[in-house]
């Protein structure tokens, strides 16, 4: 069992729960994900955060940046500057119109949950 939380975010993974073992959350919301959805979400978010890290030295202090990634059913956006940013993710299933969600982590919760996702990811490897 992996479980972490902080101001404005929650992250948990319980492999004993077979249908929806991953939980992500923010202030006043939470979404349960399948293992495959959780894995895809974490890899997508880590990819966009790594892209930000690659360009951070090229950004001036007052410059803002918005990065987007779209993969399969997922869209992610990192919005901020060289020091702080927010994250927004949308999942829309084309196979099942009953399953879809939009999540958002504001500054500074986005950095905190991303760090927890990286830890969770590393623990699974």
Explain what you see.
The longest helix is centred in the middle third of the chain and has 21 residues, at 35-55. The chain contains two helices and eight strands; from the N terminus they run ββββαββββα. The two termini are 14 Å apart. Helix 1 packs across helix 2 (109-124). The protein has one domain: Transcriptional Co-activator pc4, Chain A, CATH 2.30.31.10. Strands 1-2-3-4 form a four-stranded antiparallel sheet. Strands 5-6-7-8 form a four-stranded antiparallel sheet. With 125 residues, it is α+β, with helices and mostly antiparallel strands.
Q: SSE layout and pairings?
A:
Layout (H helix, E strand, L loop, with lengths): L1 E5 L2 E5 L8 E5 L2 E5 L1 H21 L8 E8 L2 E8 L3 E8 L7 E6 L3 H16 L1
Antiparallel strand pairs: 1-2, 2-3, 3-4, 5-6, 6-7, 7-8
Helix pairs in contact: 1-2
